[in-house]
């Protein structure tokens, strides 16, 4: 079970995530988000061995690549309509492709969409809502039961200490993406909520995180 803590804006929160065993940390480069950072601000946050992920919504490939260099990013999480050519320039092994299951009328259509994107990404992130940035609300996990993904995938959308065990039990993702559900205010993580969420995820998966 891989853990990503997204929407980091403070060094103390990055330190807490690393101390608790998170694998990925996310920085948001979407100006409409209350968690948005400049590349320089993200670069100044140390992440103690966690893979550094940048969240991009509307940016083109040149801006994404420039931001990745300045912010010292390992992955680009693509939330917009960025093309396969964009992913190729970034490097397929450095792309996390976001998909929204609610956009698809059936499981077969979702899996077809995943197969289409699989050659151009290392991970999928399945998000609640129908597009754009994160919705901050849980999705219908029953739609994902038994999903056979061609790439490992992260479950996102309103995960909290209270619901993460149910989410893991329902759809058995390869990883989890925490953001607003472990915050005391937008962009400010609660160390208590974060610790509780990771403990619940560890118990539900039967793995030590």
- Give the CATH topology: TIM Barrel
| Distance between the amino and carboxyl termini | 7 Å
Strand content: 15-25%
Instruction: List unreliable stretches of 5+ residues.
Output: none
The CATH architecture would be: Alpha-Beta Barrel
Describe the structure.
The mean pLDDT is 93. With 209 residues, this protein is of the alpha/beta class. It has an 8-stranded parallel beta barrel. It has a two-stranded antiparallel sheet with strand order 9-10. It has helices spanning 11-19, 39-43, 61-71, 84-90, 107-117, 164-171, 191-205, and strands at residues 2-5, 24-28, 51-56, 75-78, 95-99, 123-126, 153-155, 175-178, 183-185, 188-189.
Compact summary:
The chain has 209 residues and is an alpha/beta fold. It is 32% helix and 19% strand. The protein is built from seven helices and ten strands.
Task: Describe the protein's topology.
Layout: E1 2-5, H1 11-19, E2 24-28, H2 39-43, E3 51-56, H3 61-71, E4 75-78, H4 84-90, E5 95-99, H5 107-117, E6 123-126, E7 153-155, H6 164-171, E8 175-178, E9 183-185, E10 188-189, H7 191-205
Parallel strand pairs: 1-2, 1-8, 2-3, 3-4, 4-5, 5-6, 6-7, 7-8
Antiparallel strand pairs: 9-10
Question: Top keywords for this entry?
Answer:
single chain; 209 residues; alpha/beta; TIM Barrel; eight-stranded parallel β-barrel; two-stranded antiparallel sheet; 10 strands; 32% helix
């Amino acid at each position: 079970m891989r853990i990503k803590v997204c929407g980091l804006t403070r060094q103390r929160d990055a330190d807490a995530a690393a101390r608790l065993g998170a694998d990925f940390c996310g920085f948001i480069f979407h100006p409409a988000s209350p968690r948005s950072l400049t590349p320089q601000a993200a670069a100044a946050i140390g992440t103690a061995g966690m893979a550094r992920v940048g969240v991009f919504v509307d940016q083109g490939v040149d801006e994404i690549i420039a931001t990745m260099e300045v912010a010292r990013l390992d992955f680009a999480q693509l939330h917009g309509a960025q093309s396969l050519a964009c992913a190729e320039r970034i490097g397929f092994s450095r792309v996390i492709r976001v998909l929204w299951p609610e956009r698809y009328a059936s499981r077969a259509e979702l899996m077809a969409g995943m197969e289409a994107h699989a050659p151009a990404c290392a991970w999928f992130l399945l998000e609640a809502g129908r597009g754009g940035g994160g919705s901050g609300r849980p999705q219908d996990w029953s739609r994902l039961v038994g999903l056979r993904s061609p790439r490992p995938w992260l479950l996102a959308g309103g995960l909290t200490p209270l619901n993460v065990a149910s989410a893991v039990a329902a759809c058995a993702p390869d990883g989890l993406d925490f953001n607003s559900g472990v915050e005391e205010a937008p962009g400010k993580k609660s160390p208590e909520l974060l610790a509780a969420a990771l403990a619940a995820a560890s118990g539900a998966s039967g793995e030590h995180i």
